[in-house]
């Protein structure tokens, strides 16, 4: 089986489960760090000719991260494309199992069982907090409705202010974000790399949690440690 992955989360999952199956991945596929495959461009702008030159048996993609015209072009060239949809944590587990089966796995890998066990054993949060979750600046954009990251936070006791917004990633003026007065501002390091230098300074007087975007938005082996690391970052913001 020759697989090309256009999704960083799936790249990590396949590489850990089926070493050698991947022949291509995007420039944004940073895990595992020693992954040695042909790079095929970005998630939004993959080099279709480069993908086709690898003669993959399967291309794995995601309905949110990848563009439909690119997936259509691959299918038109005769390539099988598997597209995932992940909006909630349980859905991540079922979609990961589906992808791994399609890539040749004979059963559910141990890491997937461990990740599912970690999330199913989460205690009910003793208190709930509110958050705003910027995902971009220039212009400012935040998490809106129906997102995987929003579901991750909700399961950890964090309700983000724009969860009922009509858009999934609404553009919101910075003044409005500040006026929302959340208990915490959650600042991931991807897709925009918020840092201690350019994140908290935009929200004076509000607690800010700098979190790993990989643990907030990726679905794969990172799900094992995501609850612990995200919870630690959120607690640190209130110290």
CATH class (first level) name of the largest domain: Alpha Beta
Largest sheet: 5 strands, parallel
Gap between N and C termini? 50 Å
Uncertain spans: none
Judged by helices, strands and strand pairing, the structural class is: alpha/beta
> Could you state the order of secondary-structure elements as H and E?
EHEEHEHEHHEEEHEHEEHH
* Shape category: globular
Structural write-up:
The protein folds into two domains: 3-119, Nitrogenase molybdenum iron protein domain (Rossmann fold), CATH 3.40.50; 129-237, 3-Layer(aba) Sandwich (Rossmann fold). It is 34% helix and 16% strand. It has helices spanning 8-17, 48-53, 68-76, 89-102, 110-120, 148-155, 174-179, 213-217, 226-237, and strands spanning 3-5, 22-25, 38-39, 58-62, 81-84, 129-132, 134-136, 141-142, 158-160, 184-188, 208-211. α4 (89-102) packs antiparallel against α5. The protein is α/β, with parallel strands linked by helices and 239 residues long. The relative contact order is 0.13. It is built from nine helices and eleven strands. Strands 3-2-1-4-5 form a five-stranded parallel beta sheet, with helices on both faces. Strands 9-6-10-11 form a four-stranded parallel beta sheet.
How are the SSEs ordered, and which strands pair?
Blueprint: E1 3-5, H1 8-17, E2 22-25, E3 38-39, H2 48-53, E4 58-62, H3 68-76, E5 81-84, H4 89-102, H5 110-120, E6 129-132, E7 134-136, E8 141-142, H6 148-155, E9 158-160, H7 174-179, E10 184-188, E11 208-211, H8 213-217, H9 226-237
Parallel strand pairs: 1-2, 1-4, 2-3, 4-5, 6-9, 6-10, 10-11
Antiparallel strand pairs: 7-8
Helix pairs in contact: 4-5
